[in-house]
Specification:
This is DUF1206 domain-containing protein. Keywords: Membrane, Transmembrane, Transmembrane helix. Pfam families: DUF1206 (PF06724). InterPro entries: DUF1206. The chain is an all-alpha fold. The chain has a domain of 125 residues. Helices cover 77% and strands 0% of the residues. The protein contains ten helices and no strands. α1 crosses α4 and α8 crosses α10. The longest helix is centred in the C-terminal third of the chain and has 31 residues. The relative contact order is 0.14.
């Protein structure tokens, strides 16, 4: 074994040791729980906004998306102070998922462990985005970064060589993630993230949540694919635009209410997750 290889292994060992110390910290574990609770609240707010959209009660400037939910929290009496708590909570989730990506999922072997660690790393990116959004809202008036963020991403990618292919790949990745959530619901594999096993009504609630969230994310992926097919960035969009598309379909009101119920169920599942998170 060469000196470089020994140094690399020593560095990796120190990194894993530091990650285990973080994982065992009581303060860190409580911050993770706070982050998951707020993640659940965000989904419940999105569900509420989606129902308001379905019933024609949508307010001016209201957006049924994660960013829209954060803005609505910022408008409560606690305002900016609450947003900083949310930002810290999501930062804890970022650390949690990065630690899990490095040393987690010991109970699995081979490809399954690798897949779960990659998923944890991707969730860290999502939580980081939400945390930065919360911090930006807490700092003052924020720029429009909800559904337009996806449109801006599409515009940037379409301007590149093979832009349509790149946008299509993003769409396929998002669609694949949405389908994966639905598969998790039917396989009940979300129980693998808990230190307990949900049964009965709690299990059905979790399944409804993952199905609802998976469908919503899948529609966002389809919008990216549509934008790639027509080379039109304006056809891409985030969750709010996806929900509006659902509303415009036959029986759209009922479909949107059902989808909102699923998203709300996922929000409630997050409270179970906060209490029984296996890797926190």
């Amino acid at each position: 074994m060469g000196d470089a290889e020994r140094a690399a292994r020593a560095a990796a060992g120190k990194g894993k040791g530091a990650a285990r110390k973080v994982e065992q910290s009581t303060a860190y574990q409580w911050l993770v729980k706070v982050g998951l609770v707020f993640y659940g609240i965000v989904h419940l707010l999105v569900a509420t906004m989606a129902i308001r959209l379905a019933l024609g009660m949508r307010g001016v400037g209201e957006e049924a998306s994660n960013t829209g939910a954060l803005r609505s929290l910022a408008e409560t009496p606690l305002g900016a102070g609450l947003m900083w708590v949310v930002a810290v909570g999501f930062l804890a989730l970022v650390v949690w998922q990065l630690v899990t990506a490095v040393i987690g999922f010991h109970e699995f072997d081979g490809f399954k462990r690798l897949r779960k660690r990659v998923s944890a790393a991707l969730r860290a990116v999502l939580y980081g985005y939400l945390g930065l959004s919360a911090a930006r809202i807490a700092s003052g008036p924020d720029a429009d970064d909800g559904g337009d963020a996806q449109e801006s991403l599409s515009e940037g990618l379409l301007a590149l060589p093979f832009g349509q292919v790149l946008v299509a790949l993003v769409g396929l990745a998002v669609l694949g993630y949405g389908i994966a959530q639905i598969v998790r619901a039917f396989r009940e594999s979300f129980n693998e993230d808990l230190d307990t096993t949900l049964t009965g009504k709690a299990l059905r609630l979790g399944q409804a949540g993952f199905i609802g969230k998976g469908i919503a994310i899948g529609i966002v992926g389809v919008l990216f694919l549509w934008a790639a097919l027509d080379a039109d960035a304006q056809k891409a969009g985030g969750l709010d635009k996806a929900l509006q598309h659902v509303l415009n379909q036959p029986f759209g009101t009922w479909l949107l209410v059902a989808l909102a119920t699923g998203i709300g169920a996922y929000g409630i599942y997050c409270f179970f997750w906060a209490r029984h998170a296996k890797h926190a």
